[in-house]
Write a structure and sequence with these properties.
Layout: H1 8-13, H2 17-23, E1 41-47, E2 50-56, E3 58-62, H3 76-85, E4 93-97, E5 100-103, E6 108-111, H4 117-126, E7 136-139, H5 144-147, E8 163-167, H6 168-175, H7 180-185, E9 193-196, E10 201-203, E11 206-210, E12 219-225, E13 228-234, H8 257-274, E14 278-280, E15 288-295, E16 298-303
Parallel strand pairs: 6-7, 7-8, 8-9, 13-14
Antiparallel strand pairs: 1-2, 2-5, 3-4, 5-6, 10-11, 11-12, 12-13, 14-15, 15-16
Helix pairs in contact: 2-4
Length: about 300
Amino acid sequence: MTSPIISRRTALIGGAALPLAAASAPKLALAGGHAAPSNAIHNTFARGDFQVSTLLAGTRTVDEGIQTIFGRNVSEEEFADVSASNFIPTDKAQFFFTPTVVNTGSDIVLFDAGLSAAGTLAALNAAGIEAADVTIVVITHMHGDHIGGLTDDAGNATYPNARYVTGQVEFDHWAGAENERFDGKVRPFAENMTFLGDGDDVVSGITAVSAFGHTPGHMTYMVESGGEQVLLMADTANHYVWSLGYPEWEVRFDMDKAAAAATRKKILGMVAADKIPLIGYHMPFPGMGFVEPRGEGGFRYVPASYQMML
């Protein structure tokens, strides 16, 4: 089992910092009146020489209109049958918001900033990482639950020592969209931002993989070190059954639904064929698992247990 990532402050004051950080983490208020637990959670494992931590920055329970979100193009009967066969209700869904941080040894790379600075920082601190330790912030796409934490409530940059990376197609779309959240959260960092296309590297060992559809320039990232890989699929699939399991089911949040379905089949088919573990921003925490073909163009999500801890 790997050791946690240790920040400069944690190294000075010792191992007690981790439980103290978790105990003092503020609650993260979310839409609908829900909140993240005060003991923010992280999960750390190794991929070669890299340390990877998934960060539970918030959760939300949705208790109405589930089929207005997922499976919009299938019958109520099919939606109910699939849900029942997977032992999940049709009148409630649990959303998870899970940024990921990768310590390469020379950089600490945060993927997505979460709903708010408070929620993501609480989870980072629990993993032994301070805001000042983050050297690169990668934005997979510009939806609010991925960019909300780029600044605090006063508009100050959450990660003062970081440079920013995002897809060129994604940035260009939102830059011309007259979107208030983008203008307030992302545009201020444009001069300190690097723009990527498919196959470009964030740093050595972290490569952009285009996954358009959820948003016009939505990107996933392959992390590889020492011959070991993990794919950060961001919002390629938003639910482990109703989206990943049935990639052609329409999801309300997908801006181009046909492109998003094609992307799901391509990306999930790739990781299934190569048996690559993945991290999904909205998968049940700790957000890690494997994918196998299910037949008829579908997939089955297999949550990771201890495989990557050994």
